[in-house]
Amino acid sequence: MPAASDLALLQGTLDVLVLKALMFGPRHGYSVATWIRETSGETLNVEDRALYVALHRLEDRGWVESEWGLSENNRKAKYYELTTRGRTQLRAETTRWTQYAEAVFKVLRAAS
Amino acid sequence: MRLGSGIRKLLRQPAAVRDVAREVDEELRFHVETRIETLMTRGMTRQAAEAKARAEFGDLRAAHDEITAIDRGRVERERVADWWEALTQDVRFATRALLGRPSFLIIASMTLALGIGANAAIFSVVDAALLKSLPYADPDRLVSVWPDAAMMPGVFVEVRDANRTLEPIAGYSGGTAVSMTGTSEPARLVMSEVTSRFFDVLGVRADVGRTFVDGEDLPGRDRIVVLGHALWEQRFGGDRSVIGRSVIVDGISRTIVGVAPAAFHFPSPAVDFWVPISLDASRANIGRYWGTSHLNVIGRLRRGVSVAQTQHEMAMLIDRARSSFPWRMPDAWGTGVTVVPLERKVVGDIAPMLMVLFGAVAVVLLIACVNVANLLLGRAAAREREIAIRASLGAGRGRIVRQLLTESVMLGLVGGALGLAVAVAGVRALLLLVPAGMPRIAEVAIDLRVLAFTMGTALATSLVFGLAPALRASRPTLQAVLGATRSVAGTLTRRRLSEALVVGEIALGVILVAGAGLLIKSFWRLHQVDLGFRPEQVVAADIPIPAFPRDSAARARLFYAAVLERARAIPGAKSVAVASVLPFGGVGSMQSSFAADIEANPVAPGGLGPMLVQTVVSDDYFRTMGIPLKRGRGFGATDRDTTSAAVAVVDELTAKRLWPNASALGQRFKPVWVRPWVTVVGVVGTVKRDSLNSAGEVSVYLPMGNLAGFWFPTQMTLVIRADGDVGTIASRIRESVAAVDPSVPVKAVRSLDDLVSNSAARARFTMLLLATFAVVALTLGAVGVYGVVAYTVARRTREIGVRMALGARARDVLAMVLREGGMLTGIGVALGIAGALASSRVLAGFLYGVTPTDAAVFVSVPAVLAIVALGACVIPARRAARVDPVTALRSE
Q1: What is the pTM of this model?
Q2: Closest in B37, B57, B70 to A48, CB measured
């Protein structure tokens, strides 16, 4: 089984995971990290640093917007929300990833 | 919802860049601390939790830096985008607002165009004459030595060889009228005699061929000429092969060595070509070398040398040159040597006049601004609700001011663009009007500098007229927000502002009109001046001696006698004469004067004898010119014989100055350098010589037929007094001269009236422009007063209705409005008089026979202003008086 950190290196993978994390509504960075960790069954152990860089880069591209708000433990936290363009991007990336993964599976099955 | 967020986005204060790092810090701290807390709730110790959280995160410092960089870029970009979006929105909004009220747009932009265009036109002249540096290499190092006097060639040579501050140094003569023959038809042209390094000093290279080289101002090497570009094109067809060809200048054959560049016009645009002056120190030429020939001197400062150092050295050298003269110079000679930057000499005394015009035209622009500001104020009233709504939607005051200023700036730019068209037309008109001899007039053009000035002025004025109304309009008024139809308080302060503007406008108008009034009166006074001769129905034509050597005085005398004979035969010629120089002679006619010894009043050695202006005339000169003979006799047949006694006629001024206690008749004088005494046989009336406002100069008349020790002039001017129509005579003069000698060019036939009025050209120019500005100011002022009063009346219709319902008669209402208009006018006029009294002193130098505080002007100008201003009130006042109380009370 390949190391999870290797997966994270794949270009754009982290971006699409973050976008997916925001699909269900605004989250702050910590919540995005937790969501990815838990949803992947602790397999994708993403370094937090990379996650935050990705969040800000997505904001820079206009796919997410940020706003300060209050967290569950009543502290000031920065919340991220998908923009319309971000949502479109997520759909496109999801399709691309699914096709890619299916293609890889096909090849792997044929070879085995 | 969408609209709300849109506006919020628009008005969002962009996060300051330094806040970005703090926010990133806060965000990351939240993450790490939350993680630690979570881990601790799972039973970890704080230390272990901290270690794990940090390990999971990775390099915190690097993350912070990387994220901050990303965010900064984004914030910066958003700020630019916001700014641009707001701008385009403002512009779109302003365009719609301006186009929505085309009458306002047209009136305001035309007013501005007038003001801006007039300023740009005057600026183009000011720029060419005063601001642009001279079109020569390294112009800052060019100086003029002794700019109000001139050096004899002998002195020049000593100064040239001994000085250590100027390199190179050169002399030139201002321009002499000469005849050029040996090409196509003979021509009367203006020549400047220069020393060999003249072109080197100015750093000018020939367009074709070469200029003069060092040493070509020595006898034997000086028979060459450099043509002016215009002359080369007109008379030589721009043919490059003219180099090496010969022309004959006043009988002397000279070889063409070069052509000057087209833009080169030194010392004046009148100069057609340049020849080397002959620095001939031989005995035969001693009078010319040390006496009668004079050079203006220019030089280039050596690096590191100051004007003051040069001045010091020149004073010393010129004082030393005194001992080189072959005769004793008066003690007063050589004092007062000055060195000034060449630019100052070229510009001369034109600067004060241009600055007055520039100031006046700026006042016109200010008045135009006031009018537009008032228009904007009136408009702002109509837009009160719109502005209030925008404010209630969250637009800050700054945002609204910016919006309104955008509108002003666009208005200003439209005004500027139209103003440019006004400027182009204005410059064309100016060039037709400018007096002859205006420095650097050839350089006047609408160029990039003028364009930049125009647009800069447009922007500046749009801020001037836009700011007050914008600040005023953006002040939130509660009534407007609450939906009240009219906000009384707002109207009141706005009215105060308008009234203050109108008062200022009237005051400025008074200042301008008073200035114009002074100049008009001064100009009128100039025309009342007694000339001492009658210029009506007299024509004059310069006729040079034919191309024989200058010293054949006998042949010259015969030539002019023959010309006079022919001229007498012209039908309609009542009286005919020639003179070496006419009063108001103009360019090319050289007035010569000499230092005299007076027999009755000898000058002590080292003292300076009186300088007498000499005019060589033929017999009938006084009769032809209408100069009255006061005592003794004029010239006659006995004075046509060179063997008879030398005689002269003097004018009354001379008689009084030279022989204050005795009759002038029978008195004797002579030039300091020649023998025979000249006896005064008659006294005639004094004439004005150069200009209408000059005091007379001490002058003597010598008979052409018997000049004793004087040189025969190289040119005489034919004057003919006509019986009837002057026009037919003018055309016959050329024929008469050609009949005597076809090689003699006759340049221009002018009427004496024209010569006299040309001499007042600068006064006329200044007066005409200032009067034009005054009329524009008066018109704009009247429009301004009308606008404000009319607006006030319109706003007070209801109040007037109430008054009338309560029993006020139409007459009372009329009087009330006029009283209010009169009050504004009164205050404005009072302020204006104070301003005019304070500022008219700058005009003192332009006035003749009028003091800057002339009572007649200062009484009549305010009266005119008051009448115009009250006249502007009458229309709205009558409208107010016709208000029907019933309609007025229902109207709101």
Answers
A1: 0.73
A2: B57
Q: Residue A99: which CATH number? A: 1.10.10.10
Q: Do A57 and B70 touch (CB under 8 A)?
A: yes
Question: Is there a contact between B70 and A60 if contact means CB atoms under 8 Å apart?
Answer: yes
* Contact across the interface for A30 and B30, Cβ inside 8 Å: yes
Return the residue matching tokens 């450099």. B226
Phi and psi, residue B670, nearest 5°:
-160, 155
Say whether residue A35 is in contact with chain B using an 8 A CB cutoff: no
Give the CA-trace dihedral at B166, B170, B173, B174, to 10 degrees.
-60
- How far, in Å, CA of A65 to CA of A48, rounded? 19
Domain span at residue A45? 4-111
Tokens standing for residue B658: 């030279």
A65 touches chain B (CB under 8 A): no
**Alpha carbon distances (Å) from B610 to B582, B663, B699:** 21, 18, 10
CA distance B730 to B722: 10
Question: What gap in Å lies between CA B645 and CA B639, rounded to an integer?
Answer: 8
Dump pLDDT digits (tens) for B100-123. Answer: 888 888 888 888 898 899 999 889
Report chain B residues touching chain A, CB-CB < 8 A: 23, 26-28, 30-31, 33-35, 37, 56-60, 62-63, 66-67, 70-71, 73-74
- Single-letter amino acid code for the residue at B348: G
* Residues of chain B contacting A56 with CB distance shorter than 8 Å: 67, 70-71
Domain count, chain A: 1
Cβ atoms of B862 and B833 within 8 Å: the answer is: yes
CB A78 within 8 A of CB B15: no
Phi-psi region of B666 (alpha: psi -120 to 50; beta: other; left: phi over 0): left
Lowest-confidence pick of B46-60, B461-475, B711-725: B461-475
Q: For residue B770, what are its two tokens?
A: 């200032």
d(CA B577, CA B172): 33
Query: How distant is the Cα of A6 from the closest Cα of chain B, in angstroms?
Result: 16
Cβ–Cβ < 8 Å for B30, A28? yes
Tell me the two tokens of residue A46: 């993403």
Burial B543-555 (b: 16+ CB within 10 A, else e): bbbbbeeeeebee
- Asked if B30's CB is within 8 angstroms of A75's CB, the reply is yes
Closest CA to A63 of A105, A20, A28, A104: A20
Measured distance CA(B17)–CA(B464) in Å, rounded: 33
Coil/strand/helix, residue B483: coil
**What is the ipTM score, two decimals?**
0.88
* B308-338: pLDDT as tens digits: 999 999 988 888 888 888 877 777 777 888 8
